[in-house]
Amino acid sequence: MSEEILVNVTPMETRVAVVENGATQDIHIERSASRGIVSNIYAGRISRVLPGMQAAFVDIGASRNAFLHVSDIIGGADVSERIADHLREGQAVTVQVTKDPLGSKGARVTAQLSVASRYLVYMPQTQHVGVSQRIHDAEERARLQEVLAGALEAEEMDEAGGFILRTAAEGAGPAEIAQDLRFLKRLWAAVSRRAAAAREPQLLYEDLPLHLRTVRDLARPGVERIRIDSRENYGALKGFCGEYMPEVADLLECYSGERPLFDIHGIEEDIQRALGRKVALKSGGYLVMDQTEAMTTIDVNTGSFVGRRNHEETVFKTNLEAATTLARQLRLRNLGGIIIVDFIDMRDAEHRRQVHRTLEKAMARDPARNKITGVSELGLVEMTRKRTRESLEQLLCEACPVCDGRGVLKTAETVCYEIFREIMRDARAYENDNLLVLAGQSVVDRLLDEESANVADLEAFIGKTISFRVEPEYSQEQFDIVLL
Fold it and tell me: What share of the chain is helix, strand, coil (3-state, %, to 5)?
């Protein structure tokens, strides 16, 4: 599989696209004014304990308090554990962000800390040593554990904590693992010193900026090149790779062409399409994706695809294509939480099994942890996908100020009838002879045309003159009635 990483850097933001076989799979965006805080470590203070929720709010020096659940306290907690047994208000605590603030919610934090390098994740409060589940070869897993054990002994870090060998460690030798260990040892010592000296909520450790984090986390085996369109940041990447990841340095390429890097590879178009509600399938069918606060729903439709055989075959082929397409769209849009997929009904049990297997296979390539259930009694597929940062829509968009996020507007006819009712209320309440209606163009046009007879009848009924004026800045739902 051909895979490359494209990095677009401007003073305002950094954008990263992961492209597999010419198709955009992942989009990462980090803005200078609002960098994500996942993996950051803070010296915090408990501001409030919530026994009913088995959780606490933690002041980390941000605009909103972070949320810490009892299960995320050092060592974990079973259902019998009580938050009050572990924390009290005003207590100092060191926490790490696991989920960025989303909407009105503060960040989700854990007291089980970890720091990452190229090949390892260091967990100072545990003694567990594990290997990434994405390394499937049993011999390689055993080899890596032996290499790590030898490096720990050589670095005298036997009782230092727990480690996870990351996917990138596959094929790494003793020298690379030992180098990572030394780096993590120095890093954790620095974090510990800052934590001991902290007297108020503050940042102790900040993760790497996006362009460096991308190389550390995404430059896995199979990546053929990493193209970046900023000469300054290309130099920074070269230096970073030369010190920590020499095997990746040869993959770096500085792009200096006239056309923007994302335009050449069609990334800009993919981003625009990923913000749309409707996703076209090559067969002629389409998906309708609706993101809400509670869940994401995906509806599969055959559209113009009528097939060449029979209806059941048409449905089956559309559902198969939809399964692979929606898996890519979930990654591209970074949708998480509960996801409900309404495939087109299939009578054949074998067809249902094949569609389910296709979806599982497509989601297996997703780096975000996910879980897929079987088909429900209503014919729906339920799944979850881990959410750690804002979706593409939440990052790039805001609720429409005209419809307030509803996605629909009242019709001009509906607004006209609301105006009539308001005029009736005002006519009874105030003694005046004239009324002026201020409204948008489409509403005034309807009042003077289709509703003109109703306006005349209303004037005769209330005994007052009604006039109209267009307010260009008014939306279709806005209107005011002025007493003259």
Answer: 35, 25, 35
Phi, psi torsion values for 78, nearest 5 degrees: -90, 180
Residue 36: band (very low, low, confident or very high) from pLDDT cuts 50, 70, 90: confident
How far, in Å, CA of 172 to CA of 143, rounded? Answer: 10
Contact 313, 347 (CB under 8 A): no
Average the pLDDT over 262-279 and give the result: 93
Give yes or no for a contact between 370 and 296, defined as CB atoms under 8 angstroms apart: no
Largest CA distance in the chain: 98
Residue 471's closest CA among 443, 449, 433, 447? 443
pLDDT for 77 beyond 80: no
Tokens of 94: 């060191």
Q: Half-sphere exposure of 207 toward its Cβ, with a 13 Å CA cutoff?
A: 23
> Which pLDDT tens digit goes with each residue over 204-221?
999 889 988 888 888 877
- According to DSSP, the β-strands at 55-59 and 66-69 are antiparallel
Q: What is the rounded CA–CA span in Å between residue 356 and residue 282?
A: 20
Question: What counts of helices (H) and strands (E) characterise the chain?
Answer: 12, 24
pLDDT tens, residue by residue, 131-151: 988 888 899 999 999 999 998
The identity of residue 158, as a single letter, is D
> Distance between the two ends of the chain, CA-based, in angstroms?
73
- Token pair 């082929």 is found at 317
What is the mean pLDDT of the segment spanning 368-387?
A: 86
**How far is the CA of 93 from the CAs of 33, 57, 64, 197, 204, in angstroms?**
27, 11, 17, 13, 12
Token reading at 290: 């609706």
Q: Is the per-residue pLDDT at 381 higher than 70? A: yes
Lowest mean pLDDT among 175-189, 408-422, 452-466: 175-189
Region class of 161: left (phi > 0), else alpha (psi between -120 and 50), else beta: left
The closest of 106, 112, 104, 30 to 62, measured between CA atoms, is 106
pLDDT averaged over the chain? Answer: 89
Question: Is residue 18 exposed (0-12), middle (13-18) or buried (19+ Cβ within 10 Å)?
Answer: buried
Q: For tokens 């996801």, what's the residue?
A: 339
Please report the DSSP string for 151-206 in residue order: HHHHTT-TTS-EEEE-GGGTT--HHHHHHHHHHHHHHHHHHHHHHHH--SSEEEE-
Q: How are beta strands 202-205 and 41-50 bridged, if at all?
A: antiparallel
E strands, 381-474, where?
381-385, 434-439, 465-470
- % of residues, the chain, pLDDT over 70: 96
Q: How far is it, in rounded angstroms, from Cα 105 to Cα 390? A: 12
